[in-house]
Specification:
Chain lengths: ~140, ~100
């Protein structure tokens, strides 16, 4: 619906930021998940955003509004940095040397990312509100 | 049931943006003429589809489907705003009609 272009764009931003928040929550929840030696430990997950064009499939449509389609999560990428090594021989998941590999999740980084994601969510909400406000103002012309 | 819009006498065509789905963008509409009844009918169809979408999303969300709450809220807001716009247009049309009725002859 052409009238509600703003809603669709901001809505895509809301969905994408929501997904980013979900990934951060998952990273935090798995910050202390260990795996037996030989298995890949949990890796920090990051959302990769991509501009969504009005064409739908990443292609540019024709017309002045062709670039306005919002954003979408292109893929979930994995942070391949090595995990944290902790010496704890009594741990069930310790390797023969007595070291346990913890995920490469740093809770402080995740908290900062979470603040950024929730502020971005709020920004999209504000844009949405503003679009609605403009629509209602325009309607009041007729009253 | 008689379609109330099709029983309207044909109005002189308006020049302006069409209201139908996939309406051409402003600036491209030069030369396009749409009867007011058709425009209203197109807008009504849009409103009905917006409300159907809102209903479907709400039902899916309440049933625990994979729908984001923001999508539900936006669909509800869209249908509500579309309804308000339609009401304003209707009020304007009725106002015009009543003004005509009050015209001394």
């Amino acid at each position: 619906m052409g009238l509600f272009e703003t809603f669709a764009i901001s809505g895509s931003g809301l969905t994408a930021e929501r997904m980013r928040l979900d990934l951060i929550a998952s990273n935090l929840a798995n910050a202390n998940t260990t795996r037996p030696p030989g298995e890949t430990p949990f890796q920090r997950q990051l959302a990769l955003f991509q501009t969504r064009y009005a064409g739908g499939d990443g292609s540019l449509g024709s017309g002045p509004l062709s670039g306005l389609g919002g954003v979408r999560v292109k893929q979930i990428s994995l942070d391949t940095a090595p995990g944290r090594q902790v010496y704890d021989p009594s741990h069930p998941d310790a390797d023969p040397g007595g070291y346990v590999t913890y995920p490469n999740v740093n809770p402080i980084n995740e908290m900062v990312d979470m603040m950024a994601a929730s502020r971005a969510y709020e920004a999209n909400l504000t844009a949405l509100d503003s679009g609605k406000e403009l629509f209602l103002r325009a309607l009041s012309i007729m009253q | 049931m008689v379609d109330p819009l099709s029983s309207l006498p044909p109005l002189p065509p308006l020049i302006g943006p069409t209201a139908g789905p996939g309406a051409a963008l402003a600036g491209k509409t030069e030369g396009i003429t749409v009867a007011f009844g058709d425009m209203l009918q197109g807008y009504l169809d849009q409103l009905v589809s917006a409300q159907a979408k809102s209903n479907a999303l709400t039902t899916e969300f309440v049933a625990g489907g994979a729908v984001d709450i923001s999508q539900v809220a936006i669909a509800m807001e869209e249908s509500s705003l579309a309804m308000q716009l339609l009401l304003e247009v209707r009020n304007k049309v009725l106002d015009a009609y009543e003004t005509l009725l009050r015209m001394p002859v």
